Amino acid sequence: MKRGTRVGILVEGSTFFLCVFRGFFLEAFFIGVSKADVLSKLEESGVTKEISYSNFGLGREYSGELIERCVRIAEGLKEKLKNY
After folding, report:
1. Is residue 66 part of a domain?
2. Which of 20, 26, 77, 79 is the most exposed place for a label (fewest CB within 10 A)?
3. What's the domain count of the chain?
4. Residue-wise burial string across 45-70, b where 16 or more C-beta atoms lie within 10 A, e elsewhere
5. Per-residue pLDDT tens digits of the chain, which is 84 residues long
6. Does residue 1 fall inside a structural domain?
7. What is the widest separation between alpha-carbon atoms in the chain?
């Protein structure tokens, strides 16, 4: 995978989170109430065309370490949102 390659990671649960990484840096983050909702937000952003790998069927299949990174980000944010 090239350094600037964009990777989309979907984390599913009671809330849906989608991380877009460029290389190993988080470039975009989407939150939704359903998979369709979060994918719609991704589509509206225009980043969809630039994603080369994902774990949700866009581009080539991705199964690397960025999945765990996105899960940690989503869990941390979910915990913070619980307090509001």
Report:
1. yes
2. 79
3. 1
4. eebbeebebbbbebbeebeeebbebb
5. 667 799 999 999 999 999 999 999 999 999 999 999 999 999 999 999 999 999 999 999 999 999 999 999 999 999 988 877
6. no
7. 39
